[in-house]
Amino acid sequence: MTLHIETPALLFSATSLILLAYTNRFLTIATIVRGLKKKYDEKENKSILIEIANLNLRLTLIRYMQLFGVASLFLSVFTMLVLFFDFQIVGLYFFGFSLFSLLVSLALSFWEISISVKALQVHLSDLIS
Fold this sequence. Notes:
The chain is mainly α. The protein has helices spanning about 5-40, 45-85, 90-129.
């Protein structure tokens, strides 16, 4: 199998956009956590602590999503460098690792989104019933 330098370059723009989306999610949740902490300081409520714990798990997942996304981007760029120096076999392996990192990042993203949906369902359960 021959891998051309353009192939890993295709991941570059997609991975960059995914990382931007992950960062936006992180910043939004961080803002919510800060607001909830302030609310908890004013009125100690156990439900707020449960909500903060849920958001903390989501922040941790987003951090790992970003980690694997950056690893995917790094490995894609490194693959292009290796292919530039005409090391096909090494390039194939690095590209495979890059795809695997992207896959892990997307799986973590799915997990984080499912936690978010469950939290919203719990939050809205009194309205739906």
